[in-house]
Sequence to fold (352 residues):
Amino acid sequence: MTDLPPKRPNDSRFEKRFLFGSDPGLREKYINFHGDLRFGMLMEEMDSAAGVIAYDHTDGFDKDLTIVTAACDRIDLLCPLQSDRDLRILGQVNFVGRSSMEVGLRMESKTPNGWELVSRAYFIMVARKDEHAFQVNPLQQETEEDHRRQEEGKARAELRKRSARAHYLRTPPSAEEGALLHELFIETRGGTSEGIPMAATQRQTTILMHPQNRNIHHKVFGGYIMRMCFETAWAIAHLFCRRRPLFIAVDHFDFFKPVEIGSIVSFNGLVTYTGHTSFLVEVTVEVMHPMTGATEVTNVSYFTFVAADEQRRPTPVPKIIPHSYEEGLKYLDGGRRYKAGKDIKARQVEVD
Fold:
């Protein structure tokens, strides 16, 4: 199908408001024991918004399409969320491939001076029909801003391809990275390393997937998987730094396969890399088959946190130490993601 009518970004533009400032009952559903907004629940809302936008762009319901989340490319939290302020999520399609779309989302908080950007996210949505990829409508840019978003979306797509090719399961460490692994090995063997073994940070959450968390296709809602991954990562972060962890970013969140209702699912996480005050947590989602004992990975995600004191000031964290070759590769991968995330934040420019 090549004669699909082009769609404008405005055709699928989305907005949803959360009246936390005036609705105490709503606020109560979204706050944690610190009185802060539960970002995992807001991630769930983001995934839902991305799905609505993708269906609108493709007329997916009319065509009986299945739109799935292939990945969350990145989420950045730019400043603390205020639980007593109204919040809104805005979104639109930024860029389309043949059967995929990048949906850009903004989260804004209401201030006395207007709406303030507090978070941005990019979701990759894929259209399918009868188990096959389905072509989506081309995107018609009308404004300079539309063109800018498209070019940035193209650049992110190319970066995803390069990152996938450079993954540690496909590409061996560079000479510099190999030297770093050897240095860590010598420190560990000689007993001179000061830090926490990577394996000591590992934690697991295992739950049964109930129908209350299903999507319109009767699979587990991707946003719920995101929320559970975030909350697992936050718990790991809290236990690791022994302080209040402040969420900074989702580096990447992959959706490899849908999760069936009734599945027994394990969320496995550990700290893979540490900076001075910030660190990276990897969470892998596995579906476990009780009759055979086999496991199948459905999702992998990466979260960056900062350790903070009671005044929300960054505080140093212990160094993480890998003790096996696999852990060493995870450490190198975490370091790449950590540094790339810093570069991305340094280049980011706020846009309306």
Summary: The longest helix spans residues 325-347. The domain at 9-165 is CATH 3.10.129.10 (Thiol Ester Dehydrase; Chain A). The longest strand covers residues 114-129.
